[in-house]
Amino acid sequence: MHLKQSDLFNGMSPEFIKHVMNISSREEYAPGTVLFHGGDSPENFFILIKGRVQLNFGNSEKQVYVCRHTGEFLGWSGLVGRDSYTASGECLETTYLLKIDLSKFSQLLDSEQDTKCLFYRNLAAALGNRLINIYEFISEK
User: Strand (E) positions, the chain?
Assistant: First the structure.
């Protein structure tokens, strides 16, 4: 179960994980597939199973991050109340993702307030770690 490998779901009950899996689909994407564009309305977020996805700022070709580790998440803009994706996501190789519908996921979180609090704590920690990685990436250039 790939959700358990994602920091976003640390400490969550098996029942909650099962509900999330029920609203998820496992998808395969070819190299070059654009999952979302910066500025698009967010409808899904994704958990990486295998592959690599490059995130570019907005619709530019300026790379800001590459998701490459099982359990990493992307397309999270809708999780934090943004009305559009802030980056574009493009598959760099054959990539397998869990695709999670944002509206269904939000309804699920709203029905489990304790889990909702834990999820957003995990999200904040994971985004903080990603920010540190981006700082390291930028400093190497």
Answer: 24-29, 34-36, 44-50, 53-57, 63-67, 73-74, 87-91, 95-101
Q: In this structure, is the dihedral angle defined by the CA atoms of residues 47, 50, 55 and 61, taken in order, positive or negative?
A: negative
Which of 31, 14, 20 minimizes the C-alpha distance to 96? Answer: 31
Among 99, 114, 97, smallest CA distance to 13 is for 114
Question: Could you tell me the pTM of the whole model?
Answer: 0.85
Please tell me the distance from the alpha carbon of residue 2 to that of residue 12, in angstroms, as a whole number.
13
Tokens of 77: 């803009």
CA 97, CA 135: separation in Å to the nearest integer?
26
CA distance 73 to 123: 10
- In tens, the pLDDT along 59-110 reads 667 777 889 999 999 998 888 889 999 999 999 999 999 999 999 999 999 9
